[in-house]
Amino acid sequence: QDMFRFFQSMIRFRKEHRVLRTNLSNGTCGFPDVSFHGTTPWQQGPFSNHDRYVGVLFTGSERDTGPQLVYVASNAWWEDLSIRLPDLPASMSWVAVVDTAEEQFPAPRTLSGNEALVRARSVMVFVGR
């Protein structure tokens, strides 16, 4: 039952964020439409066979909905990782909306900055608002 509800929520999330389904524009807020990151934004060179973390930032903008920013943080390592998300414009904040390490669906929580802890073997999704 929990797995079914999780996938329902992920389908709903994907429908609500068109930036995950299509290229809306050439990015937004100074970001490219898709970018890949290590635990520190913009510092990752080419990924190697030894990397256990990848962050993917999807951005775009539509006239009716404004800017859309979705960051997917995937930790395949057996230990928790501290990550830093890309800096947002001063009027925006990162909001954690998905955390697969949680047994229950956590309520969205606004980060006080751009640092987060991604627990071992889990995925988190953040939205810029």
Structure summarized in a few sentences:
The chain is mostly beta strands. The chain is 12% helix and 36% strand. The chain contains one helix and eight strands, in the order αββββββββ.
Secondary structure elements and pairings:
Layout: H1 2-16, E1 34-37, E2 53-62, E3 66-75, E4 81-84, E5 94-99, E6 109-110, E7 115-118, E8 122-128
Antiparallel strand pairs: 1-2, 2-3, 3-8, 4-7, 5-6, 5-8
Task: Explain what the structure shows.
By secondary structure, this protein is mainly beta. It is 12% helix and 36% strand. The chain contains one helix and eight strands. The chain has one helix at 2-16, and strands at 34-37, 53-62, 66-75, 81-84, 94-99, 109-110, 115-118, 122-128. A six-stranded antiparallel sheet has the order 1-2-3-8-5-6, with no helix packed on it. A two-stranded antiparallel sheet has the order 4-7. Strand 2 and strand 3 form a beta hairpin. It starts with a helix and ends with a strand.
What attributes characterize this protein structure?
8 strands, two-stranded antiparallel ribbon, mainly beta, six-stranded antiparallel sheet, single chain, about 130 residues, about 10% helix
- Helical residues, percent: 10-25%
Give the class from helix and strand content and strand pairing: mainly beta
What characteristic shape results from the CA principal axes? globular
If you average the pLDDT, what whole number results?
87
The proportion of residues in beta strands is 35-45%
Measured between the Cα atoms of the first and last residue, the distance is 30 Å
Radius of gyration: 14 Å
Number of beta strands: 8
Q: What is the H-and-E element order?
A: HEEEEEEEE
**Which stretches are low in confidence, meaning pLDDT under 50 for 5 or more residues running?**
none
Sheet with most strands: 6 strands, antiparallel
- Helix tally? 1
Q: Biggest sheet, strands in spatial order? A: 1-2-3-8-5-6
